[in-house]
């Protein structure tokens, strides 16, 4: 059974309500470089930006000012192909990790014109390193992996959406630990989706979708605190599709699609400010999804149905955009 809620589709899967991708409506003619950008990940060493185009199953790499460098992917199940890539993250050495949603796996890539031994060139400059995962409920298995983030020691954290948990792996995909289960209590989830990490503390923030809250954990998954409630007021949430942490200040940014706004919080959930609104002009959004923060504190937002990335300063002032 499928129902609609706030322009999002829900499906009954094994008796569990699962939020799928947003209903993005009728699309205008896409620009050359971006068509419905979804996931955003920034390389902290170069400030290059990686974008997932979940509709076309490709990953695109841009400079910080929006010049397209590289793209790869396409639909499929083989190495370097994707079935709804949800999110992307970059480790300290520049390796790129992608949550390959409906293939229920993580793919790892190395960016080099000469692929190291043991890797596979999927296109010029992109080397497939490995993948891990399959559909299931066991350790290292996934039910539609969604958000992904990497800590200061290059461990990988994945939101395992249908299994209502977060799994932690080392950089080679070896399972370390997990936390979460279905519920409303501390450390429990109802359809978790996106995740962020403070690189100074390695503390993890998880958006708990149908509990309308952000939960904060230490690096081992121990619960610290939470904030949020359903609504459109300050510190309240509707349909959140992105969360990010400023690597310098620890401020937390949350992308709420249902209210077309970005909210900014302190590291412990204190509301600071918000900006946005529905529209197509600079600073407005049409079904914005993920976001990330570069090393200078600028925020990059995937303005999905406007087919663009918008950049803001830490106060929410519009800087630039690229398509």
Strand share of the residues?
over 45%
Q: Secondary-structure element sequence?
A: EEEEEEEEEEEEEEEEEEEEEEEEEEEE
Tertiary shape: globular
Mean pLDDT across every amino acid position: 92
Rg calc: 18 Å
Main β sheet profile: 5 strands, antiparallel
Beta strands, count: 28
Strand order in the sheet with the most strands: 8-9-10-12-11
How many individual helices? 0
Low-confidence stretches: 1-19, 23-30
Distance between the termini: 36 Å
The secondary-structure class comes to mainly beta
What percentage of residues falls in helices of 4 or more residues? Answer: under 10%
Keywords:
single chain; 323 residues; mainly beta; five-stranded antiparallel beta sheet; four-stranded antiparallel beta sheet; disordered N terminus
Could you describe the 3D structure shown?
With 323 residues, this protein is mainly beta. Helix content is 0%, strand content 46%. The chain is built from no helices and 28 strands. The protein has strands spanning 2-5, 8-13, 16-22, 40-42, 49-53, 58-62, 68-73, 85-90, 96-100, 105-111, 120-123, 126-132, 145-150, 156-160, 165-169, 175-179, 192-197, 204-208, 213-217, 223-227, 240-245, 252-256, 261-265, 271-276, 288-293, 299-303, 308-312, 318-322. It is globular and about 50 Å long. The relative contact order is 0.13.
